[in-house]
Give the backbone structure.
Amino acid sequence: MSEAPLTVTLTREGGRDWVQHPDAELRLTAPGGAEHRLQLGLRPVLIGSGPDCVLRLDGAGLSRRHCEVQLTPKGVRLVDLDSKNGTRILGVAITSALLPPGVGAQLGHAQLQVVPKRSVVSVPLSSQPRFGEALGLSVPMRALFAVLERVAPMSEPVLLTGESGTGKELLVRALHQHSRRAKGPLVVVDCGAIAPQLIESELFGHLRGAFSGATAERSGLLAEADGGTLFLDEIGELPLEMQPRLLRALESGEVRKVGESQYRRIDVRVVAATHRDLRAEVAAGRFREDLLYRLAVIEAHVPALRERKQDLPLLVEAFLQARSPPVPLSEVPAQTLALFQAYDWPGNVRELRNAVARLAVTPHAPLPPARGGASPEARAGQALVHLPLKEARALVVADFERAYLAAQLEAHGSAPAAARAMGVSRQLVHRMQHEYGLAERDDG
């Protein structure tokens, strides 16, 4: 008897929508027999040898981004991501195909199996198409909204994971607005933008004269968030030597300024966000496991735009309506949404917002042709004079940064080497790569 298909089903029970999917496990077996396992849920699973892969395997002929696996209403879809050694089902090379029940796939020299269990997982969906300013009608976003709606009134820490540009800060602001701390401050700390030698002073404050250059006393961002929410953006960039002190402050609820002997009590809810796989960072010795557990009491994944393309019309219309004056969706060329649907959006919602801004000014301007995004040359003739200064400057700066980073990566061959040549941190280069869709070379 053939096995039942592994599919996602939408149901309605108790006055609300639910999505049901089988409890299944991915098993990736290396040529030597070593097995790597991962639970398969609603989130697409990226498989390969690169650091951004959810299921990662080195030395088995896998490209950095080899393939992606996702549960769909029609079954388990396997998509090859232009891998070097290919993805095969029953010996046939595929680009995108449904994996038949009970049939494995060959990824390079490794074997992939989807192993179903007997149980079914039910995930509640929000009845609302938005959470704060974040919008979404797709199943991944409604499932995320349902989680955040439930945890917003609580005080437990929340960790949001997901690629750069997915709108994590909007979700954090909505969490704060829906919490009992809404009247308190929301303090944002970009852990990747603060110079390592200044992080301690920024977080904890300092006394006047505590160190060279400390000409005035400072309270520190942790103390400034007292009674409210502290948003630790890109927490994966926090230097390892600072992590124990942050952990102690979060566990004790006490902070002490640099140069001070006395502690003071603070009452802060912490929400952290990262584009990194913190568990992989823990395994590599770059992130403390105890700090991860402290931050990830509640963990939620923010889907990439390519995982929620059903939301594209909603987002495009919202961005057009937010302009001054508003632009009706009917003025957008008929083929535009189809082209948007075919594009992978490596820069996620941030990139879409910029594309809509260009579209509103020059409806027939070239659209991004490939995963890397539109080239600066394709944008050179756009009528920036019709944009407000802030938007025009942002577009020009984004074009320059993308072209400059691409040239540095091409010239030096790796992110660390490019960072040295640019005179910036490796963390900043990695963040720019994610933001502009400039992945490291695929040499697998």
In short: The chain has a mean pLDDT of 85. The first strand starts at residue 9 and ends at 13. The CA atoms of residues 200 and 266 lie 17 Å apart. The radius of gyration is 23 Å.
